[in-house]
């Protein structure tokens, strides 16, 4: 079996570490694994396939001899290293938003538009975490009748803000229990015992860039260039796994029964009709695994051709690391 040389750019972050974990879980045939990070992390060790591998400082020369590079860094760093990765002849699967709206770069959820990945020029983009989870939940419906519009509310875990988000919620919960002063650094206000209906930065239409990703990225993933989405993104005091309430409006009527049957058959999705006596998933149910769980599918009571559902998925895994590895796996399988 051919083995592949794979670098992970941003190997010490939450998503980078998860990428390495998923590479091992998926039994990707890795020849050389090269974990890359900043200079301050160089020399520290990371475990892979029973071996300790030293983290290297990322430089423009780091990518020579690599077949694939998984990116788990912020936009500026991604844009900095992308030319060197492409020049080295590797395929760059990038988890940042740096290239998601570039028409020359395929934006991929393998179960939905995986074939688009092969039309790349050295860079493939991983979509936004909430967008991946939502599109996975509604893709089966759209294959019965195309979706023309959607209303979505996301309920996003603090881990979506990185390791510092997890630490802040933990510290605030501990401070509340001990009657101590609450410190806020990562989020704009206290997140413990609270919800914050604002994620990202404002755009020119009073929506945030995080909210606009659902429409802009959804159009590319679903091949629905006219898709219209109204989205509100909410940060909630949950450690891991995002949840989304979505109402979709299709061109033709789709019954609840037909939607459920299609969702149940869709790769990477689990339909919840009776799970531990309930018809819906929760973030705890879906953490540390790769399926998107969907429940509470019902007719919309406001407009014709509308269906409402609830879905949950692990945004560190399917929303980021696992989706990237699944793209890599698909490319390897097709040779």
Quick structural summary:
The chain is an alpha/beta fold and 335 residues long. Helices cover 32% and strands 24% of the residues. The strands form three sheets. A six-stranded parallel sheet has the order 5-2-1-6-7-8, with helices on both faces. A six-stranded mixed sheet has the order 10-9-11-14-13-12.
Strand order of the largest sheet: 5-2-1-6-7-8
CATH superfamily of the largest domain: Dihydrodipicolinate Reductase, domain 2
How helical, in percent, are the residues? Answer: 25-40%
CATH class of the largest domain: Alpha Beta
Rg from C-alpha positions?
20 Å
Report the span from N to C terminus: 12 Å
Number of strands: 14
- N-to-C order of helices and strands: EHEEEEEHEHEHEHHEEHEHEEH
Major sheet size, sense and barrel closure: 6 strands, parallel
Reported by name, the CATH topology of the largest domain is Dihydrodipicolinate Reductase, domain 2
Put simply, the count of helices is: 9
Percentage of β-strand residues: 15-25%
CATH structural architecture of the largest domain: 2-Layer Sandwich
* Secondary structural class: alpha/beta
- The average pLDDT score comes to 97
Give a verbal description of the structure.
This protein is of the alpha/beta class. The protein folds into 2 domains: 4-127 and 320-334, Rossmann fold (3-Layer(aba) Sandwich), CATH 3.40.50; 131-315, Dihydrodipicolinate Reductase, domain 2. 32% of the residues lie in helices and 24% in strands. The radius of gyration is 20 Å and the shape is globular. The relative contact order is 0.15.
